[in-house]
Write a structure and sequence with these properties.
Length: about 725
């Protein structure tokens, strides 16, 4: 490259914009988008020349690298039509940590007149930061100034004033400590992330921070006029990226928002997910080359929010990441809070936002691989393995740090578990195993939540990279325990509210079970006590369905026991146990035992005891038993038992949030309410019902390939 320092001294530098109109021209400190294949940015200089006041015969562009060396030059002869001539010149600059000066000259014979000049022009990558005040991330305690760099750029600011934005057509060196009204605001963690990327990749970075504190997700949606108005938050971000020509060059969006949707009872989990997906659709429409989305999970802090509201929003954020491979989530557990218990200092706060998400950005956007687990652990199941052993499994190995039992009890919250509490904890591989003080209870739809209050990773269960679990809310516990025979009164322990495998007993190839006289066999809530030795013969399968037969007023309780072959003549006592959620419209005092005999006829038998949650009858005359349930005394059951040939399992039932369907084939799933109105239609086997009102719903399932169909009744709590 030629040294132009001495050559430039002889130029006659006259600024003459009056006769030259630019359609495109670089600005001071502008970041041009980097071509990912060539690692260069293309700068377009175009416009028209009016020769009424000048006598140019060509336009020339000279690119100076680092303020000293000529990198390139290009010129275009002018061809006038009347008094005007167009020009359109492209020059390229490398994406590197070097400033370029681009000067445009008008040539008239051997004379050069400087028309315009842009200094500190760079080429690099573009990221959006969006959300509430923890995305705005201005200084609370401690400065991010050590991450200042001449090669991190911001266009204008994230101001909420549309007029101010339109009057601020300038690029700035990024700063992290100021709020959205300060020029060049990137936010503290936006600046730190950009500095890490710049240092590692040796390329400039532009941050477009559009965050606005205290606003719900509805505030960030795209209104109808966003492309022509800066009155909305979405419109202002669109204006900035459109004005700079960078709409097609946004590589990722980083999102920190949710506190403002956690006030009061909180926005429903599904509603938040729907709104985020609407926003994502709008982003992809306007910024079509976004490669990934990053969600910082809302912290369990105050900010005027409620515990119930936070649970809903954090669960929505978790489910977004589970359901969409282009969304990654990072918890903010294990970070220090500022004195307002809502925002963060820079150290162990906003700085950690950047250091935690940085490896994910390097992996997803730049293709780097890591030997450690850079994602936060995700819960995959919660199972009651014994009456007092709760096992939480995640998707990666865990480690138990210096965590006290009191901390565990504060962070892992059990619901619908009666008097049970956590008394001990251990970590083995991917599993957290809690010892409980008592059995949570039969059929309770128990759940567990991780709320993430503790402000240091050393106080939490983490992965090998000191990342805490992604918070989860009211995750259903599958009861796989069996505590032997039930007690004489009340709901039986160990009979399992989980119905993962509806088969209780399967006898084949000559196998048999002999129940000795006055001994009992417990079939997960059906206690059989014969007066004489009773044999269950081979080729007989006992199953339990958690779906009621019939419909109001002729419906059973939501617990039906079936035998593929009717039992031989039986005399003795049968106790049918049930939970309140199984009752539907049936009253405790009106419950009777219903038995289907070998002729498929339902017969009812009056309850012999006065205890709630169980129905007892003693058969002194022999009976053949094909099915057993309970109903109201006036009920006539005429519906066949549920078909099991599709081998479908639905759990939990009743359901609070996620309804799981286990089936080998592809299904069409349609859920109706009791009036027949279609509520959900999907092919997914994990269905979020958290936003659906309480009540009884019919789940209609059809195998897409073989057209087999079945229907199930589900109770939404």
């Amino acid at each position: 490259m030629k040294n132009l320092f001495s050559t430039l001294l002889i130029f006659i530098c006259l600024t003459s914009f009056g006769q030259v109109t630019f359609t495109n021209a670089p600005q001071n400190k502008q970041l041009i988008a980097r071509n990912l294949n060539t690692n260069q940015g293309t700068v377009n200089i175009s416009g028209t020349v009016n020769n009424s006041g000048v006598n140019y015969d060509a336009i020339e562009v000279i690119v100076i690298k680092g303020g000293i060396f000529e990198d390139s030059r290009a010129n275009q002869s002018l061809s006038f039509s009347g008094n005007t001539a167009p020009f359109n010149i492209n020059v390229t600059i490398n994406s590197e940590l070097t400033n370029y000066t681009i000067t445009v000259y008008g040539l008239s014979g051997t004379n050069r007149n400087q028309i315009m000049q842009a200094t500190e022009v760079v080429a690099g990558d573009v990221f959006i930061v969006q959300g509430q005040s923890n995305a705005e991330a201005n200084e609370r305690s401690g400065s991010a100034g050590a991450n200042y760099s001449n090669f991190i750029r911001v266009y204008a600011s994230g101001t909420e004033n549309g007029s101010n934005l339109q009057n601020n057509n300038n690029w700035f060196i990024a700063q992290g400590d100021g709020n959205k009204e300060t020029n060049g605001n990137a936010g503290q963690w936006g600046l730190k992330l950009a500095k890490m990327l710049q240092d590692d990749l040796n390329i400039p970075i532009a941050i477009f921070n559009g965050a606005h504190g205290g606003q719900p997700i509805e505030f960030f949606q795209a209104p109808g006029n966003y492309a022509t108005s800066t009155s909305s938050n979405y419109g202002r971000m669109y204006y900035r990226l459109n004005k700079t020509g960078l709409k097609a060059n946004v590589r990722a969006i980083l999102w920190s928002q949710g506190e403002a949707n956690s006030f009061g009872s909180g926005l429903a989990t599904q509603s938040y997910m729907n709104l985020f997906n609407d926003l994502k659709t709008a982003w992809l429409n306007d910024y079509p080359n976004i490669e990934h989305f990053y969600v910082f999970q809302t912290r369990d802090c105050d900010c005027g929010t409620t515990a119930a509201g936070r649970l809903k929003i954090k669960e929505a954020q978790r489910l977004l990441a589970i359901n969409d491979a282009t969304i990654s989530i990072m918890p903010t557990t294990g970070m220090s809070l500022a004195s307002d218990n809502c925002h963060y200092p820079f150290g162990n706060g906003y700085e950690k936002f950047a250091t935690r998400i940085y490896p994910l950005v390097k992996r997803d956007i730049y293709g780097e691989s890591f030997t450690t687990n850079i994602d936060a652990p995700m819960i995959t199941s919660a199972k009651l393995m014994t009456p007092t052993s709760l096992e939480i499994e995640t998707d990666m190995p865990l480690q138990l740090n210096a965590t006290s039992l009191a901390n565990i009890q504060q962070d892992y919250v059990l619901t619908n578990v009666g008097s049970a509490s956590i008394t001990a904890v251990q970590v083995t591989g991917k599993k957290i195993i809690f010892t409980l003080s008592a059995y949570p209870g039969f059929g309770r739809s128990s759940t567990v939540s991780f709320i993430g209050k503790l402000a240091n990773s050393t106080l939490n269960i983490t992965n090998d990279n000191s990342l805490e679990l992604v918070n989860f809310s009211n995750f259903q516990i599958q009861d796989l325990s069996d505590n032997g025979n039930p007690p004489d009164t009340g709901n039986p322990q160990g009979n399992g509210s989980d119905n993962t495998n509806p088969k209780i007993i399967q006898l084949q190839n000559g196998g048999k079970i002999i129940i000795k006289a006055n001994s009992s066999l417990n079939l997960k809530g059906l206690k059989i006590t014969p007066m004489a030795d009773h044999t269950l013969v081979a080729d007989n399968t006992a199953t339990r369905s958690l779906t009621a037969l019939g419909s109001i007023p002729n419906e059973s309780m939501a617990r039906v026991f079936n035998f593929t072959s009717a039992t031989a003549d039986f005399t003795g006592q049968i106790i049918y146990y049930y939970d309140d959620v199984d009752m539907g419209s049936i009253a405790h005092g009106d419950a009777v035992l219903q038995v289907k005999d070998a002729t498929d006829t339902w017969l009812s038998y009056a309850d012999e005891d006065s205890n709630n949650n169980k129905v007892t009858y003693t058969f002194t005359n022999p009976v053949n038993i094909k099915s057993v349930t309970a109903s109201a005394s006036a009920t006539t059951l005429s519906i066949e038992t549920l078909k099991e040939e599709m081998e479908i399992t639905i759990f939990p039932n009743p359901v609070n949030s996620i309804l799981n369907i286990q089936y080998d084939g592809d299904l069409q799933i349609i859920i109706h309410d009791i009036s027949g109105k279609e509520i959900i239609k999907t092919g997914r086997k994990s269905i979020d019902m958290s936003s659906i009102p309480r009540g009884i719903y019919i789940v209609n399932l059809a195998d897409i390939k073989n057209s087999k169909k079945n229907s199930y009744k589900v109770i939404k709590k």
